[in-house]
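[job 4471] stage=fold_predict status=RUNNING
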Amino acid sequence: MKLLLISDEEDKYLWDYYRPGNLDGVDLILSAGDLKASYLSFLVTVTNRPLLYVHGNHDGAYDRQPPEGCDCVDDKLVVVNGLRILGLGGCVKYNGGPYQYSERQMRMRILKLQWKIMRAGGVDIVLTHAPVAGYGDAENITHRGFEAFLPLLDRWQPSYLIHGHVHKRYDPRQERVLQYRNTTIINANGKYYLELEK
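[job 4471] inference complete, writing structure tokens
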């Protein structure tokens, strides 16, 4: 199974210079936020594959014009092609804008999802906008990760946590793929392909 992971910066190869066949073989698209609604709608149209997204801190316009044909999984657990996917969009509160949360608010969001996770028998992929504290985040408050994600990973040990928010151009030395215990953490900035065994 092939996943296209995207966030924060529209990829010219997938949009401006798109050619039929560019996305052959993609089974599912996961957006970690901060992308134009029209970009998401375009991708879901040309691939005819499911596109799941969470909100980034710059996605306030989605309230007026959400991406067509795409499914928001914020505060939900959904199952697609057998994959249990949990959505937790937004970032650490830094100026009171939309989709910003305190650590306490994020912990409460996670707590409200515990029953759904238990009923599903766990979770395979956690889709977030913000990174995990200490794993791919930055020192400034705007791009700091959530400590609240650590107990979630400790308890349920998902195979992957996919995030955005931290652009590769902020620090080109920053690793895109990191490991936290049994969870692989991937920064989806721009685009990243993830191949899963069926």
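[job 4471] summary: The two ends are 6 Å apart (CA to CA).
[job 4471] exit 0
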